Amino acid sequence: DTGVSQNPRHKITKRGQNVTFRCDPISEHNRLYWYRQTLGQGPEFLTYFQNEAQLEKSRLLSDRFSAERPKGSFSTLEIQRTEQGDSAMYLCASSLTGTGNEQYFGPGTRLTVT
Amino acid sequence: GDSVTQMEGPVTLSEEAFLTINCTYTATGYPSLFWYVQYPGEGLQLLLKATKADDKGSNKGFEATYRKETTSFHLEKGSVQVSDSAVYFCALSDRGGGSQGNLIFGKGTKLSVKP
Hints:
Largest sheet of chain A: 7 strands, mixed
Number of strands of chain B: 12
Strand content of chain B: over 45%
Shape of chain A: globular
Number of helices of chain A: 0
Strand content of chain A: over 45%
Radius of gyration of chain A: 13 Å
Distance between the termini of chain B: 41 Å
Number of strands of chain A: 11
Oligomer: heterodimer
Distance between the termini of chain A: 36 Å
Radius of gyration of chain B: 14 Å
Structural class of chain B: mainly beta
Largest interface: A-B, 27 and 25 residues
Order of helices and strands of chain A: EEEEEEEEEEE
């Protein structure tokens, strides 16, 4: 069990550029979540996958955001036309059905939009 | 909607002091409750959980009891150490109301323990 991994750990981009983040969940976990965390706040839910199906999206996930989990394993989160307000830590978590929704988090990708 | 409220920090204690971090929640269904900890420069780690009323979660000397009557899940530790310095997050997962189990977090409480 190598834990949840995320890449890159840090991303600095100019406003208007597109960025893509990757999350590799714990291998046997079928559920995958994306959250966003800003300074001094708790994580806020963005979207959720069960296997390859995206089952829920938060109202925070504007149409500039898209997430995929093509084979039910790793997931990508893409932000198009980044804005300064997108600067945050993007967290990925995974869990296994039947474990009481114990979610295990990755280290996060810190995005800075200049 | 569902929400979690936890005491504002920062909380500063001396080593071996007793710790309580208050957490209350609002939920329409029957939530599971969690405490996560974030050490400096690290990701969120699950500290403990409770899935039904009167359950007590415990780990690493920390405890929290699910109190349905007061909608609370306060975190306690009898004797804190410098290594407990971190940010603590209370969270709930509403198993009802159509939710798929995403976590709803409080804002976090920063704990600093001085030697």
